[in-house]
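Exercise 3.2. Students should predict the tertiary structure of the chain below and write it as structure tokens, then compare their answer with the key that follows.

Predict this chain's 3D structure.
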Amino acid sequence: MQRRDAVLRAMKGHPISQRRACVLIGVDPKTVRRERPPDNPEIRLEMNKIAEKRRRFGYRRIGVLLERVGMIMNEKKLYRIYREEGLSVRRRRGRKRARGSRTPMPVHCVRTSAGPWTSCPTLSGPVANSASWL
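Answer key:
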């Protein structure tokens, strides 16, 4: 559609033929000559109704539901209208996973000048007496 518009603008702004403008822009002349039929507003309306009810449905599933109603169309046309209406389903993000190992944070124990390991919470009470790994 953009290239077709570029050819039409070139023909309008400069005194060149359609064939010459198509060669310069790199478009087949048949695409410029062909008029695209207008889209049915009924299809767009029905597509929006379905998308409001079923937010997680993609264009293929909406196409199946449109066929049940009696609106049969090409996959390319269906996808184009789906994108133009802004109905694309947003992708879900992946599950967040923990990075690294799941080990507890180390507690730094500081020994006071003459006394036992008082600032370490795990070494208080009966645990300190049976701790043979010190």
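Discussion points: The longest helix spans residues 41-53. Residues 2-33 form one domain.
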